[in-house]
């Protein structure tokens, strides 16, 4: 047993029993000075003393367990990771709290869990309110990235001033599909006297610009399409700063962090629009019936980049198919979601396991299609595939995500992915939902939680819970 200091817990035990130090020392058959040292963490708690505590008071020694402390530390790290502007709490401070004041630590964990539950319930209620939800946003202020996502959603995921500027620059720089990286490198040197260097080292970022030396340093692991995207992002900051700042200033964002995220998002939007210019890309997408892999080959970019661009083609005079995009990892964490339409992505309790975006992990690199129907009766066509990135050598874990692109079933005939699907049969669509905690499908075999506000009605005459019902 390693040295374990449990002074506060020992002192709490004495106070709960209404004992003096002298009385407790006598009960444990140790000297008062030794007990005083134990309570002040000057001496570690030993196994013989623990056994005497159990014998004298019938106390479960788990109260003094290292395992219990480790669990509390893990719970506290989770709870205190969301402390806000005060910054993260160090592990040393958390460990001290768990060791010295476990009751306070458990109270904090309990408060955090109740707060999470209330936020989930609030989000579930907001998801049913539509436009009336503005009056309730003070109950659950969004995170900065959620504010930025909602800002792009409010714009229909289309920023016309950046799209138009990107098309003009594409023509001015004499760029061509599949050769954008070389063209942008030459443009940066000619227009901004900027050089490109590829550097490798521990923790090397994808892109770093040194304004003094006029050098952009890129990771050597980037593919040509990624190089083009990083160079285009830097051009956005060099040339489109006034537009980006103006759009950000007009956005209803509540914090500097959200505004900084919005600026980066707008720079990325410009980069995508520059390497995949609106008119040329839309024409190819229509000609190829939105075949994502053929578009990726045609323009020399990746599958995910094409999906991103397809979700932004909403110019009033030349609209593409209105898509929505989502990116998830194996654990179900949603790292990207954007929509040009009113499709609802749940913020509560994950998404639906019947969605083909999760099935994609079992067939890496293969495009999966799915006709799916939501509880409100609306049907959608979904395309999903995994994307992987490995920027290191042997033994370095790769990043793997599943990317899904969806559209209303009314547009499915324009897509090559509608081949072989019976879009006219409503029963052929897979019934999915936005997430168990907001989904109303009572008899779903994959349900993990009851809908919020609808407890389980247990039927004692069957071997399983009865369908979820309104109390």
TrEMBL record:
Pfam families: HTH_3, Peptidase_M78, ScfRs. Residues 10-64 form the HTH cro/C1-type domain. GO terms for molecular function: DNA binding; DNA-binding transcription factor activity. SMART domains: HTH_XRE (SM00530). InterPro entries: Cro/C1-type_HTH, HTH_RamB, IrrE_HExxH, Lambda_DNA-bd_dom_sf, ScfR_C, TransReg_Diox_bact_type. Keywords: DNA-binding, Transcription, Transcription regulation. It comes from the Bacteria. GO terms for cellular component: cytosol. Gene3D superfamilies: lambda repressor-like DNA-binding domains. Belongs to the short-chain fatty acyl-CoA assimilation regulator (ScfR) family. This is Cro/Cl family transcriptional regulator. It comes from Zavarzinia compransoris.
């Amino acid at each position: 047993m390693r040295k374990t200091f449990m002074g506060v817990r020992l002192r709490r035990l004495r106070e709960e029993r209404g004992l003096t130090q002298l009385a407790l020392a006598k009960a444990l058959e140790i000297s008062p000075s030794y007990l005083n040292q134990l309570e002040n963490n000057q001496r570690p708690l030993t196994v013989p003393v623990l056994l005497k505590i159990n014998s004298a008071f019938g106390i479960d020694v788990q109260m003094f367990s290292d395992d219990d402390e480790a669990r509390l530390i893990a719970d506290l790290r989770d709870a205190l990771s969301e402390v806000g502007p005060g910054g993260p709490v160090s592990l040393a401070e958390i460990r001290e709290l768990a060791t010295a004041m476990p009751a306070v630590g458990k109270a904090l964990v309990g408060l955090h869990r109740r707060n999470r539950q209330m936020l989930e319930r609030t989000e579930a209620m907001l998801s049913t309110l539509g436009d009336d939800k503005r009056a309730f946003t003070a109950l659950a202020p969004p995170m900065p990235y959620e504010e930025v996502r909602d800002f792009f959603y409010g714009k229909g995921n289309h920023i016309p001033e950046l799209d138009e500027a990107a098309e003009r620059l594409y023509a001015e720089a004499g760029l061509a599909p599949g050769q954008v990286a070389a063209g942008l490198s030459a443009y940066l040197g000619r227009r901004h006297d900027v050089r490109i260097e590829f550097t490798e080292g521990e923790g090397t970022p994808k892109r770093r610009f040194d304004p003094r030396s006029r050098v952009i340093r890129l990771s050597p692991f980037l593919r040509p399409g990624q190089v083009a995207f990083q160079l285009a992002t830097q051009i956005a900051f060099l040339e489109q700063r006034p537009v980006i700042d103006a759009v950000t200033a007009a956005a209803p964002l509540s914090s500097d962090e959200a505004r900084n995220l919005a600026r980066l998002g707008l720079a990325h939007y410009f980069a995508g629009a520059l390497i995949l210019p609106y008119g040329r890309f839309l024409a190819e997408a229509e000609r190829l019936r939105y075949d994502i892999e053929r578009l990726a080959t045609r323009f020399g970019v990746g599958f995910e980049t094409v999906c991103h661009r397809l979700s932004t083609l909403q110019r009033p005079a030349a609209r593409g198919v209105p898509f929505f995009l989502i990116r998830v990892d194996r654990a179900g964490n949603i790292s990207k979601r954007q929509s040009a339409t009113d499709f609802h992505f749940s913020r509560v309790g994950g998404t639906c396991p019947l969605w083909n975006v999760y099935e994609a992990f079992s067939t890496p690199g293969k495009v999966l299609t799915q006709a799916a129907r939501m509880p409100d009766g609306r049907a959608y066509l979904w395309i999903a595939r995994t994307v992987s990135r490995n920027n290191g050598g042997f033994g370095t874990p790769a990043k793997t995500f599943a990317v899904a692109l969806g559209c209303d079933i009314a547009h499915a005939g324009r897509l090559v992915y509608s081949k072989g699907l019976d879009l006219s049969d409503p029963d052929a669509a897979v019934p999915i939902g936005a997430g168990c905690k907001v989904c109303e499908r009572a008899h779903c075999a994959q349900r993990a939680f009851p809908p919020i506000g609808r407890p389980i009605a247990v039927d004692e005459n069957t071997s399983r819970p009865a369908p979820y019902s309104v109390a």
